[in-house]
Amino acid sequence: MNLRDYQWEVIGPALEGKNIIIWLPTGTGKTRAAVYVAMRHLEMKRDAKVAMIVNKVHLVHQHYSKEFQPSLGDRFKITPISGDSEEKSFFAQFVKKSDIVICTAQILHNSIISDSEEKHVELTDFTLLIIDECHHTQKDAVYNKLMEIYLEKKIDGQQRLPQILGLTASPGSGGASTFENAVAHILKICSNLDTWKIMSPKTSIKELEAKAKQPCKQYDLVPERHEDPFGDKLKKLMTAIHDYMGDTEYERNFGTQEYEQNVVLMEKSGAEAGDRRKRTCALHLRKYNDALFLHDTVRMQDAYDFLDEFYVMERFLKNSTDETDVFLYRLFNADAGGLLELCRNIKYENPKLTRLEKILKEHFQNSSNSHGIIFTSTRKSTHSLLKWIKSKASLRDLDIKAAVLTGAGFSNQGKHMTQNEQKEVIQKFRQGSLNLLISTSVAEEGLDIPECNIVVRYGLMTNEISMMQARGRARAEDSCYSFLAESGGKESRREMTNEALEDLMNRAIKYVQDMPEGEYVAKIKDLQRESLTERLVKQAKEESKKKFSHEDIRLDCRNCNAAVAFGNDLRVVEVTLHVNINPNFNVYYEEYTEPLDLGKKMENWVPGGSIRCRFCRAHWGLIIIYRGVSLPSISIKNFVLQTPEGPKTCKQWKNVPFSLELFDYNAYNEDDSSDTDDE
């Protein structure tokens, strides 16, 4: 394996068995350096075993096929294991048979806490743990959960712990506003990863700079709309909804994140109070606010289509005669014609799109080899931008072959992409049959994407890590990184702040690298002890939240307040699924779709159709067929919990104030059999 001088420089301590973080810019060969460390580790250490963990499924196969298998496959047994592979069911056996395992951090964590003989492994079964994008090792991230297990063993005096090798292009500043806080953030990451030192080139810095050329950055700032009758009309409709509610409590700063947060609280308040009018109006107000976001990002037509589709689906799925529903339907329909007419007036169109059109012409007009990425904030806006590009006659002549790239997880933002769909898009982009990706943050880090000569961050307001990761995609010769936003807006102010935070991060890392060894080691030990104490306090706090017995809990439909279940009807399946085993529960719901395609294969279950409330048709969850048994799996956010202390809503199951029993497959089947015998 041929390494560059700067790669040799940063891996030196790792070859001696020390825990380090390799800090190198995107595209400069962090993974290649890690592959070499893994090879030498396997050659030199007795009974060595390596795990490379990643935070995204597609990176498992990417690292396997692009780096590990080509370099080491002829000498070592390498096994990639992801959520859609059958190997995860027998993780322990594959670990025993392999020299190198490449998997998601979640699979490794699930296997460590599993009681199954086929799955269970110990962290100490590995002698080297490589952590990709290791800046995520903080707070409640799964990387940090793994390292908490490591640190607990270390503090308890465990000797045979794996060597840690972290890889990152951007540790970040932790959102710090002072140098001291930025240093504290870097030290915390070092503590979490039990790091001896952060390694970056010193003597071979010029070679690194030549390899990691920075793109030309330009601020493409556009003026605010002089007139915005479409947005004004949406705000007028929102005001009418507030007036209908008789609301004088909530701020009406429409089209802002602050307003969205207020509407979320309004919906929660309405749900817990059993105030259906308030809750329903809040849900519709959030849709209007989403439409304002779309209007600000893409076309008026996209915002109109979004609202129109919402109201069509509401009427189709619910067919409600409730007074509030009828008012909201009529309110939108009364103004739909006027909104549609405004959509056709180019005088009021989004100025950001005009500037984006100019940027694309500049970079695709005279070059058949151009490759680019447009980063935008939501799945909705990726699809809207793709529609816009295909609709523009001036862009159709430029041989732009564009496609959307979004995440594989389920989201209320829009349809997810399956992992196979992601792979196909990336492969086409690599081969050249696509030359423009319109992507959410999924393409910022990790993905093996060809060097781009144009990267556009389109109206984004994110942190300095996202800025650096996106900029790192513009690595072609004479490449350009464009930040496109409204002049003087919050997005452009945030981008400038990110530049300052990047400088703060660089200075903080250098300070930590230069700390006297004794001072650094003492600080890391203190932070690790604090971390363990915080973990114990957090566990005690979480346990104290489970203060009710499941018999004392009733579940009401969040939409219509119908009482439909009790806490003792519920069981946990496969850690993340929560099912109702009461056979009478089917009186309260109906299945209303064909079996869902989740885009990946589950281990012991397959999805059935979606389920909804039989009374109001609000969505509740889905049917799962677990080892041949059909069970309704519900999402807790769709219900109100009636507790001894009053009503409560929860976004996630982990926050419910009672403990849930595990699903006993054998006992459930025995009960079914006895019922049949009685008949």
Description:
The chain is globular and about 75 Å long. A hairpin with a 2-residue loop joins strand 22 (639-643) and strand 23. The longest helix is centred in the C-terminal third of the chain and has 29 residues, at 517-545. It has four domains: 5-211 and 515-533, Rossmann fold (3-Layer(aba) Sandwich); 229-348, phosphoenolpyruvate carboxylase, domain 3, CATH 1.20.1320; 354-487, 3-Layer(aba) Sandwich (Rossmann fold); 550-678, RIG-I-like receptor, C-terminal regulatory domain (Metal Binding Protein, Guanine Nucleotide Exchange Factor, Chain A). 45% of the residues lie in helices and 17% in strands. The protein starts with a helix and ends with a helix. It has 679 residues and is α/β, with parallel strands linked by helices. Helix 5 (105-113) crosses helix 6.
Low-confidence stretches: none
By CATH, the superfamily of the largest domain comes out as: P-loop containing nucleotide triphosphate hydrolases
* Tally of structural domains: 4
**Portion of residues within helices:** 40-55%
Helices and strands in order:
Elements: H1 5-15, E1 20-23, H2 30-44, E2 50-54, H3 57-72, E3 78-81, H4 91-97, E4 100-104, H5 105-113, E5 128-131, H6 142-155, E6 163-168, H7 179-192, E7 197-199, H8 205-211, E8 216-222, H9 229-245, H10 257-273, H11 276-297, H12 300-318, H13 323-343, H14 351-364, E9 372-375, H15 379-391, H16 393-396, E10 402-405, H17 419-431, E11 436-439, E12 454-458, H18 464-471, E13 480-486, H19 490-513, H20 517-545, E14 554-557, E15 563-566, E16 570-573, E17 577-580, E18 589-591, E19 605-613, E20 619-626, E21 629-634, E22 639-643, E23 646-648, E24 661-662, H21 665-678
